[in-house]
Design goal:
This protein is of the alpha+beta class. It has 13 helices and 13 strands. The longest helix has 20 residues, at 253-272. 36% of the residues lie in helices and 23% in strands. Bound molecules: thymidine-5'-triphosphate and magnesium ion. The site of thymidine-5'-triphosphate has 15 residues, from strand 1, helix 1 and strand 3.
């Protein structure tokens, strides 16, 4: 019998913005790209959600739906810092922390005599004290249950599902809530009148296997709230990168070079941060062009330098021959990344080895 927590920050980016600008409290607030520049929202607060505004919505549509919506630009650096502090809090409770994104993680607290409920309360209190932000928690015997439960008392709440209540807890949930059931599988089920996990629980396992192959067995368990996936602490990272999308496409190589300097500084800062370290083996650069086509250039190299990235930029830029919408640069680590190394920096910002904690998003 395990005890798994799922902790999820409330309206994460928007909550941070409102924390830092209290005059915005009580008003509908969203974070994302400007409406005149193909922008979409990353998230919004509950006041905005009441108007039907949501994550990934184009900003111009959101403003149509809620004209008084205040749309703020993203400040990823700040979100990353907060995310780090929150993760540090998790780690004071257990080493078994599996981050899912900047604002959510699973924690395995099996065997801790305080019990899941009390640990979740303490973690949420600590998050509030140190970051002045709220989080919600789900407590259950596995990841599936914990994740669903963390939504139950959002915002600023927590919900626990005991082992004996798991099957009943699952029954009313739509089949889509099950890990691994995408839109296609959900539609196949719904066409047969199977809309909830409760419906699914009544299907013979043989029929599920006939319909879904091996996944049928998993479905048989998942719809009953049985989930064997372990909480897996973050693995050593294979690469680290930083990127930027420009509000106006860059048509000159000179302008790209200028932006590259900023990106390079960011990458160096990230590489210098303490954490898991590894030997840099390759450098890469990616470009996305105005027509959304992309190219990437990569070469072996143990020490990231601005000159090396400039050479990659020139190659990629010439290849595209089009205005540039996004530049990303990064490093790939060798197999030794797993070792806890922390070697000194070389001269002139050259990085001999690297360290970072994985919060910076890569290319998705
Ligand atoms: P979520 O946890 O999905 O959302 P949230 O924290 O804003 O709100 P909730 O209270 O419902 O948990 O995502 C965390 C952050 O990730 C969110 O603040 C912004 C970012 N994000 C995006 O950038 N794009 C997206 O499409 C989504 C869903 C989130
Ligand atoms: Mg969240």
């Amino acid at each position: 019998m395990r005890t798994v927590l799922h902790i999820d920050m409330d309206c994460f980016y928007a909550a941070i913005e409102i924390r830092d600008r209290p005059d915005l409290r009580g008003k509908p607030v969203a974070v994302g790209g400007a409406s005149d520049r193909r922008g979409v929202l990353t998230t919004c607060n509950y006041e905005a959600r009441r108007f039907g505004v949501h994550s990934a919505m184009p900003t111009f549509l959101a403003l149509r739906q809620c004209p008084q919506l205040i749309v703020l630009p993203t400040r990823f650096e700040v979100y990353r810092d907060v995310s780090r502090s929150v993760r540090a809090i998790f780690h004071r409770f257990t080493g078994l922390v599996e981050p899912l994104s900047l604002d959510e993680a699973y924690l395995d607290v099996t065997g801790d005599s305080r019990g899941g409920w009390r640990i979740a309360t303490e973690i949420r209190r600590e998050i509030a004290r140190r970051t002045r932000l709220t989080a919600s928690a789900g407590i259950g015997p596995n990841k599936l249950i914990a994740k669903v439960a963390s939504d139950w008392r959002k915002p600023d709440g927590q919900f626990e599902v005991k082992l004996e209540d798991v099957s009943a807890f699952m029954a009313p949930l739509p089949v889509r809530r099950i890990w691994g059931v995408g839109p296609v599988a959900a539609e196949r089920l719904e066409r047969r009148g199977i809309k909830t996990c409760g419906h699914l629980q009544r299907i013979d396992p043989g029929d599920l296997v006939r319909l879904f192959g091996r996944f049928g067995w998993e479905l048989y368990e998942l719809c009953r709230g049985i989930d064997r996936r372990q909480v897996e602490p973050a693995r050593p990272r294979k690469s680290m990168s930083t990127e930027r999308t420009f509000s106006r496409d860059l048509s000159e190589l000179g302008a790209c070079r200028h932006e590259l300097q900023h990106l390079f500084q960011e990458l160096l800062e990230d590489l210098r941060k303490p954490g898991r370290a590894g030997q840099v083996e390759r450098l890469f650069l990616k470009l996305k062009f105005c027509d959304f086509s992309r190219t990437s250039v990569e070469r072996p190299g143990a020490s990231p330098s601005l000159a090396a990235y400039q050479a990659l930029l020139e190659e990629g830029f010439a290849r595209g021959g089009k205005p540039v919408r996004l530049i990303g640069i990064g490093v790939r680590f060798g197999d030794k990344s797993a070792e806890q190394l922390r070697l000194p920096l070389g001269a002139e910002g050259e990085v001999k080895t690297s360290a970072g904690d994985g919060a910076r998003g890569g290319f998705r």
